[in-house]
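Here is one chain, start to finish.
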Amino acid sequence: MSEVKSFRVFMENLIDYAGVFPPASLSLEAAMKNYVRIRQTKYSWIISRFLCPSTKISHFFDLYENNYLNSGQWKLSLIFPLKEDTDSLITAVTAALADLNQQIQHHPNIVVDMFEIKISPKIFQNHDTKAVKNFVLQMTKIFKEKQWLFLSGKKVLLFFEVPSIELQPQASNVLIQSLYDVQTDFNLPIDVGIKVRCGGLTANAFPSIPQISTILINAAKKRVYFKATAGLHQPLRYYDSQLHVEHHGFLNIFSAAMISYLNPTIDPEIIEELLTEKSIKNFTFDENEFKWKNWRLFVHEMEQIRHYVKSFGSCDFDEPIAALKEIGLLN
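Its structure:
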């Protein structure tokens, strides 16, 4: 069953490497070295972008020039830190893009086509759709003004991470509606999406099944891009006896996302059941289709849906690979 067509489509470029972020917290040098190692393995087709903190972009280019000029193309996503007020965030984004623009023109093998912004909880006060929409539009216009310098007019993806404490349906719905409005109402050469944090170092960092289900279905209805981060080192849901919490599985999350995007009017209880699934026997991959129980996706449908259902950030690549081998999906 390893590497059949449907499994390849499911897993291709699914993991963004986040080695510099917790809990791994590697130095930038160590993370870049590990990224190069991963890309030399037979599982390199699963890895996608290198996730780089915006505050370390200059250091990244220094290390790249000294060690990795002949290492092929690098695709990066730039991660911006949380700022409590919009003005501080605008300052940080503008400075990082200026730095990036200065560096990127000398390095054609570096492609920066994704950016990820954490939204301050203050933006969600009173769940004001207009305020959230204005914030999204304001940030998107900054990238519109700068993007030609580092992407020659190609589209970039700008993901907005909803704060963990704002993952209640009302707040996530406000963000998804705002993303949809900006995407459809303004002729901007930028695609926007929602980024969901699926775990962390404490039990309260893990969103509930209904919270995840609501986000997936509403994002699917609006055709908003989706990516995830944190806590997804295992393919299937499992209980963490140290944190006393159930971890989400990336096979659960992305199966649910793909089925939601193909069936946006699906009953939320079905998606919730899929998100709680712990038996690999209920998942089937073959050359023509992927199935979970009686729900199926043909390969051509999966290819279309992966345009919207992008990837998840992980500070560890080896653990997910080992887990896929353990359940028989990889050799």
